[in-house]
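Throughout our pipeline, every protein is held as a single compact record rather than as scattered files. Such a record has a labelled line for the sequence and another for the backbone structure tokens. The remainder of this section carries one protein's record, kept here as part of the documentation:
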Amino acid sequence: MSELLKVNGMVLSATPFGDYDKRVVLLTRERGRITAFARGARRQNSVLLAAANPFAFGVFSVYEGRSAYTLVSAEISSYFTEVKGDFEAACYGCYFMEVAEYYSRENLDGTDLLNLLYVTFRALAKKQPDNELIRCVFEMRAMVQNGEYPYEMAEDPSLQEGTRRAVAFVLYAPLQKLYSFALTEEVFAEFRSVQDRLNRRRIDREFKSLEILKSMTDYGIK
């Protein structure tokens, strides 16, 4: 058997596998995105019952196999229960997980994206700023980390000064301050429009959770 590895990470998704197991996708600092099987995780007495679920953040102990890992234990530092307990915030959280899975790669350093996820979930838990602003900021910074964001947007003369300043802030702010600002309704409308256009141009897939969020907005569901 291979050597036991300890990886810092977050569960992006979890699906049933067999009668009692789970297949989990983890975003880790050390190995990027990995797939692991949690044996017996659906049994009521399993030590992985809570850990093998989306939003769980901590240290995971795994064995490496030929094509996947085996998850044997976990030390969870946060389950982000505040996010799980708020239906709207949970939907945004699921969307951020989908985006993280889209941008992450196997066997590549996942530190930046993992840190971005962590501070984003902290913002969701605190309910500050507005969830839609959190969404736009997360999308923008994820594009920056993936080398896809057009930096000239921060100097686009067709945009309001407030929008340009907001874009510049998100591009260069340290992560711990990333969600420490608010926008007027007028500036935010333009800021969101800019990011939505970039999403359509640069992301080549649809996200199920984003479709749910759009439906919630259309029907005024919170």
